[in-house]
Write a structure and sequence with these properties.
Distance between the termini: 14 Å
Strand content: under 5%
Transmembrane segments: 33-52, 94-111, 118-137, 143-164, 176-195, 201-223, 235-254, 260-277
Domain EamA: 4-135
Protein name: Membrane protein
Main location: membrane
Structural class: mainly alpha
Subcellular location: Membrane
Largest sheet: none
Oligomer: single chain
Shape: globular
């Protein structure tokens, strides 16, 4: 099942997060975004050259929509990270599967179709409850701006993933979809560092940036394959596995053990994922 690529994506995004956490004390957010995206662009250009393929596309407008939505989502999420506790910002960002399910249902309704698998929709909502139990978000009354940014970030993320689905259906290869998104990230990063400045790369910093860029490239490619070829709702549900991977790594590396509610949340996330996978439906 192609949706299982989302598990690879979730793990690699978690690994990327570890590298970002290690690099955050030495480099600003703009630098991280720039290097993360630039490494992807360079690797994919080399891949295209070796394979004799081209970055030319007949779907440039769709790539612009996907990249714009993805870059806006990324920028808003980073802003919410500066305004909210990490757990709250992550929870709001993980609302994207809910927005995806609503977009799928709205699209089906506009087409006069009732084929939406409500079992999968219910599993997505159950998985989000698991995320909330695990992360236990809190928000200060003065931080409403960050909260709104986090919610909107999830919406744009959902729009970007739906655009990935459309590009995949149009026959666009996953590497080219990732290339144009990475190119958008380079533009965002350049604008960011123009304001915040840049630091010289050390050997340690170079290693961390390579880790961030390679992990992000693998994660984005796996995510693109999952959404473009798999069932949209199943893939959206499996996004929640990233929270479990992050929790397990936090336990092993930093000794951060979840409370009882967190364990219940992880069980709920696993149960919702198994429910989604048990009886796969036609691609949404």
């Amino acid at each position: 099942m192609q949706s299982l690529w989302m598990l690879v994506s979730a793990f690699m995004f978690t690994l990327m997060g570890v590298f970002i956490k290690l690099a955050a004390n030495e480099y600003n957010t703009g630098e991280i975004v720039l290097y993360r995206s630039l490494i992807g662009v360079i690797v994919l250009l080399a891949f295209a050259g070796v394979r004799g393929q081209t970055i030319r596309t007949r779907h440039f407008g769709s790539h612009v929509k996907r990249s714009t939505a993805g870059v806006i989502s990324l920028g808003l999420w980073f802003y919410s990270l500066t305004q909210l506790p990490l757990s709250t910002a992550m929870t709001l960002n993980y609302m994207s599967p809910i927005w995806i399910s609503l977009l799928v249902m709205a699209t089906a309704a506009m087409r006069g179709s009732l084929r939406t698998d409500f079992r999968l929709v219910a599993a997505i909502f159950a998985g989000f409850i698991g995320v909330a139990l695990l992360l236990q978000p809190t928000i200060d009354s003065q931080a409403w701006g960050g909260g709104v940014a986090g919610v909107i970030s999830g919406v744009f993320s959902a729009v970007a993933y739906m655009q990935v689905k459309a590009l995949g259906a149009a026959g666009e290869p996953d590497w080219r979809i990732v290339f144009y998104f990475s190119l958008g990230g380079v533009l965002l990063g350049l604008g960011w560092v123009a304001v915040e400045g840049m630091h010289a790369l050390t050997w340690r910093g170079t290693g961390l940036m390579l880790g961030i860029g390679i992990a992000a490239l693998i994660a984005q490619t796996a995510l693109t394959r999952a959404f473009s070829l798999g069932n949209t709702l199943v893939t959206a549900n499996l996004q929640y596995s990233g929270v479990i991977f992050a929790t397990l790594i936090s336990m092993l590396v930093w000794g951060d053990w979840p409370a009882l509610a967190g364990w219940i949340g992880m069980l709920l996330i696993v149960a919702s994922g198994m429910t989604a996978l048990r009886r796969p439906s036609a691609p949404a």
